[in-house]
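Exam revision sheet. Question 4 asks you to relate a sequence to its structure. Input first:
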Amino acid sequence: MLRYIIYKFVVYLPLIIFSASAWSFTMETVADENVNIDDYSYVIPYLYYTESTEAVVGGIFFSEGLFQPQLNISATAYTSANDSNGVWLEVNDLKLANRVGLNLQAYSQRWTKLKIYSDSPQLSSSVTGNRDSSAEQFLLSHGRESVIDISTFFVLPVGNAKQQAIHEYILDSGGILDDSTASGGKIWDPRYSGRSIITSGLISNTLAFDDDAQQGTYQRSLAAYLGLEYDNTDYFRNPTYGSRQSFLVKHDWGGEHSDVPWTTLELDLAKYINLGKTSWSRQQLIALNAWIKNTPSWDKKQGDLYQRPPIYQRAGLGGLDRMRAYTTQRFNDKSALYYSAEYRITPQNNIFSDLGFLDSLVKVRWVQLVVFAEVGQVNDSFNFTDLHRDMKWDTGFGIRGLVNGIIVRMDAAYSDEGGALSVFFGHTF
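Answer key, structure tokens:
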């Protein structure tokens, strides 16, 4: 029987909407309708039930193109029958200068049944969540989490963005890119193709338990980060050829708002191979992803505590994007390695092209079918041999659609620990 990880929806709702945001300084226009699909605002109410939250009711607000053509504003609020609740706000692509933008994410949420695969940071070693751990080794508690993440980005004057920072993609009425407006992918050279972006920011995270067994603050962090991304794909939202590379470093100096100092390094690589059209498919491609993360501070100590990041900043596998058959951060340790392959096909026929009276509210421009396989591993040292030994695996299939300018996906995955069904926004990579 499938184990639904939708119960994590409430806890990770901010992350879900975050991935629906537009890529830095971009716009999209549907050519034959002359309508900017990023220029709209709407509210979506939702109601669902899971074992961990019981009945949940809430609403999501999306606004794209309001005040500035590339600006994205999103917000949500929700409550549940077992007193899980939260509020969240995100502002993306606020233009400060010609090539400089600002992103803001802030949320606070209370949960009453949360699985955490992590030992206390006071322990000398982590058993819960390591490569050999049992799926039953978790902490179940209730408490509150709050996060503030503010960052600025700079679009480098090279490649596709050499003349202008904001790029406009032209789509046909079916949501397929006009290749003449692609932002890269034909050649690999940051000087002439693709878009290069530098991001820097500060993120504050507090995870506090308020039950009798775990009274008080469990994990606190105030970290700065610096990232460089080179996106040389044809279309950031639905790439069909090209590649993407990004590197991210995070560092917490410790102090009043942190438990301990820590550092993580992260490299993410993606490649897209276009297989062309057929009589029954509008698009088909192979998408490949490799990701690696390391924690250089892991074995260092400050007093009696190891310099290890909080659970949701760790090198980990499991959740909505990496190792989808497992619970979020099911495996986490000093380092992690992950590989994924997806076959994506967009059929010629779109069964949701005509929704009758709903067309004025919901527009599904294409539907995509996906088959995928994933492998990954965590380790207590940064050792390539060990990271490739006895790798965890899962495989599955999914269905995705471009709905009101946002990609919605549903993936079903299976592993040796069971199965999971997840609903999310955006491609996995």
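Marking note for examiners. Residues 13-18 form the longest helix (6 residues).
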